[in-house]
Write a structure and sequence with these properties.
6 helices, mainly alpha, single chain
Length: 124
């Protein structure tokens, strides 16, 4: 039972990270590109920083870091870190579903390679 609970730290890290990236993409995608001048860029960033969704993404990033620290207290880095590759898989799938980004056969093959690689690392 403890190993299952310990793995929740790894998967919490992944879920918080994926949430954060998707929220950032969603909110930044809702506004136009930042202006070319420095003042405009600063105003652009400040507007994002007070956005409640962006704040939730920043908090999720913090929670991902805290979860990762807990995972590091339970597992060797060589075991835990390969699970982070699931971020790529989940973000690729979610970006296709939520943002209409492409999901090609080549990307599907890459996802399969990541999953096979992760399985080999975990079992080895």
């Amino acid at each position: 039972m403890n190993k299952i609970l310990d793995h929740t730290y790894i998967f919490s890290t992944i879920l918080f990270t994926v949430y954060s990236q998707l929220i950032m993409r969603w909110q930044v995608g809702k506004i136009s590109a930042p202006p070319a001048d420095w003042r405009g860029k600063l105003e652009f960033l400040l507007a994002l920083l007070i956005n409640p969704w962006v704040i939730s993404g920043v908090i999720a990033t913090l929670l991902a870091g805290l979860s990762w620290m807990m995972a590091m207290s339970r597992f060797p880095l060589s075991y835990a870190f390969p699970f982070v590759s699931l971020n790529y898989v989940l973000i690729l799938i979610a970006s296709a579903l939520f943002f209409g980004e492409s999901f090609t056969l080549a990307k599907a093959a890459g996802v399969a390679a990541i999953l096979v690689g992760l399985f080999i690392i975990v079992k080895g």
